[in-house]
Structure formats: structure tokens, C-alpha cells
Write a structure and sequence with these properties.
With 76 residues, the chain is mainly α. Helices cover 75% and strands 0% of the residues. The protein contains five helices and no strands. The mean pLDDT is 89.
């Protein structure tokens, strides 16, 4: 239900802009995204996968995917 919510789309666009201001290169943006969303560093394989996704679909869409993930939505 959250995936295509207009509010969530706008917020992920804002998050993507923040990441671009805070970090110049894509790997740094991905690691910062994981820190903000999951409060942890991305593993090497996660970073590679997310970078590939960003190149195909854009940073804001990658933000939306991570926010809609199980790890973000549920507390362990």
C-alpha cells in the first residue's frame, strides 16, 4: 500500500536530494541511505545491488524500495 502512495513518493524524492547534497558519489550515497533507513552500513553485495538498481531506475526509486522493505517496516 505504501509503494505508490503520493506522500511516500515525495518523501523519497526529498531523501534522494538530501543524499545527493550530503554525498557526491554513488557508493557514498548508498551507504548513507542504509545508515538513514536501517541504521547500519550496507554489505558489499547490498551496495552493489542497490547501485545497479539506481543506475537503472534512479536514486529516488531506490529509496522507495528500501523504505518498503521488510527490514524497514518491521522491528526485530
Amino acid at each position: 500500500a505504501m509503494l505508490n502512495n503520493r506522500f511516500l513518493v515525495r518523501q523519497t524524492e526529498h531523501l534522494a536530494k538530501r543524499l545527493q547534497v550530503e554525498s557526491e558519489d554513488l557508493p557514498s550515497q548508498v551507504h548513507r541511505l542504509f545508515e538513514l533507513i536501517y541504521s547500519r552500513r550496507a554489505t558489499e553485495s547490498e551496495a552493489i545491488d542497490v547501485i545497479a538498481y539506481i543506475k537503472a531506475h534512479g536514486l529516488a526509486n531506490a529509496c522507495r524500495v528500501l523504505i518498503n522493505s521488510n527490514e524497514f517496516l518491521f522491528v526485530r
